[in-house]
Amino acid sequence: MTETSAGTSNREKRRKLQGWRFGVAFSACTASGVLLLNTILTIYATVKFGSSGGISTPFDGDCERANAWTTGLHVLINGLSSILLSASNYTMQCLSSPTRTEIDRAHARGDWLDVGIVSVRNLWRINWRRTVLWWLLALSSVPIHLLYNSAIFKTVAANQFILVVANTNFLQGSEFAAYTQWNGSNPIPINAYMYPRVRDVQLQFSEHDNYTNGSKVHNLTTSECIISYGTPFLSEYRNVIAITSAPGNQTNNTVFSADLMSGTSGSDSYRWICRDTSTSYYGLECDMATVNTSNWTVAHYKIDYCLAQVAQPHCKLQFSVPIIATVIVMNACKCICMFLTLWTQRSTTLVTVGDAISSFLDQPDEFTKGRCLMAKTDLDRGFIGSRWSGTKCRPRTSPISYKGPARSRLFAGASVVRWCGTVGLCLTALITATLLLKIGMAHLKYSVDSAFKMGFGAVDSRALLNIHLPIRGSGGLLSAVLVANLPQAIISFIYLTYNGLFTSVCLAYEYSTYGLRERKKPLRVTTPHGQQRSTYHLQLPFRYAVPLLVASATLHWLISQSIFLVKINVSNYKGQELNRSSDASGLGYSCLPILLAILLGIAMLITVLGFGCRKLPSSIPVARSCSVALAGAAHRPKDDVDAAFLPVQWGEVRGEGTDEVGHCCFTSQEVHDLIPGRMYAGPANKPYDNGPDDQ
């Protein structure tokens, strides 16, 4: 007796985790694994490396190693975020799937529900508890995609620097009796603040002949000097002497101008380059394209070349504890919602098209009787108008003449709105990315080859965006994080629409295979009975779902390497690190991953368009995900009571209907091809009547 009870209990447990329940359980366990990994790594890193101001520093040293760690960790982050997105999407489809009771209620009032896809439309027509869980899963994805990729970032050094305009006598250690300091566009008298600093620069450049052997000082042409110092954040160099051939005089013996530049203040850091152009006079941002490199002047002295002091590269790998904590909380929210879905969802939901057909074959829908040739497009012509009439609707039975077999293309599997919306979003994203790539290339002023050699996510002081956002403190960090991750959120939304389109097309293909004459097929359902096939995937087969998930993860990673958060650690003109209040946050970009993301996006768009060009296997009316069209095709012969549990086909059933009007349906019995010119019960101008007078 005990063994029997145990066996019954085990069978009950297996039954509870069949079909979509198994999928949701797997999604919940996967999300829990991501949560556990995030939590363990965060606690470990915080305890081992400490935290200051919510920022922990696991690595401090060589920039190449920091780049490698950042790239690898972002591969992991984008893999985990894509897993969470996929798990959420699976559970959201299960939550938005209707029960048979909800479908019957909708049909009774002239409405319909979606089956087999993630449906926002269903949310206003299903149980409110499932709707709440659906929205919690959807909204919890937003902070993850807006923050997760910026949880880990690289910090680079940015240098303040002394700008000196001098002749070659300055390099020989000659005294400078007086000089002018530049402030905006007006020279001001020398003060004691700058004199010792200029003297420091003179000693640094003259000692050990640094300016001749090139070990610590680079000799730059005017063009190279403008490009190297024309950056919002200076990392590669520090102090610079702009050499002029102007002779000294009693007032200015060797030095003609000097100033301390922040090197970390956006466009203000390189405004001195345009000092003698109209840009400076009108207070405009420095446009280096207007600078004449062959006749470049600073402080009204023609510059022959520059001597730039080389700065030692120095980078940190850091992560934000508040950001990763927010991600962990949202991750936990997803896990709770998934487990609640398993715990609270007791009613049988129709998750796949097979579930819906099985239900309608088992209990035919009274409101769609006589609508065997109804397609989703027929509902678009008049059905919605009767929905809020307040009168119980009943179906028309006007027959139509069958014109002959016509196999539609898979484009018919989704509405024009869905196709245009998805393709339009994809094209908008691709065009925007292409324009940004063009702007980025122009801003770098590199050749195509050298720009792409910058690699993935590598921080270059010349590849930093200057978009007039706050750069200091927590406000600067938050602004940079949100802007850097906004493309991630947009791509996640586009992925969901793309996934929905692909799912709709695959649904139409599977549905159409039941119209083939080669053999009958058992229904693919989430909880199988009889000869029905079990399924763990929903409407999108694994052969499409897995490559789509990999493509999505790759696209997210490429975007994370295209535009990314950069923390700027400020050092003074001597190379000494300043306090945290001087640090800044910025946005870096890389051209190569932008190009690869564009190419991958084009490939994904071509794939779905090419798939849509294929013809459907049979000429069965395209029901899409519409419950009314599915129900209309499932009015089996009265004696075929077990059709739902047996292999079935769709076609004309002889002996049903009348001599004048034929009947088509899913059935386990023998079916025949439809006869062109014969009358069949099909869609009328208005699929539902509101009363007897309407007929």
TrEMBL record:
Q: Which residues form the signal peptide?
A: none
One Pfam match, given by its short name, reads: DUF6536
Alphabetically ordered keywords of this record: Membrane, Transmembrane, Transmembrane helix
Q: Does the keyword Heme apply?
A: no
Say if the entry is tagged with keyword Zinc-finger: no
Domain DUF6536: residue ranges: 20-171
Membrane-spanning segments:
20-46, 66-87, 131-148, 416-437, 544-566, 587-611
According to UniProt, the name of this protein is DUF6536 domain-containing protein
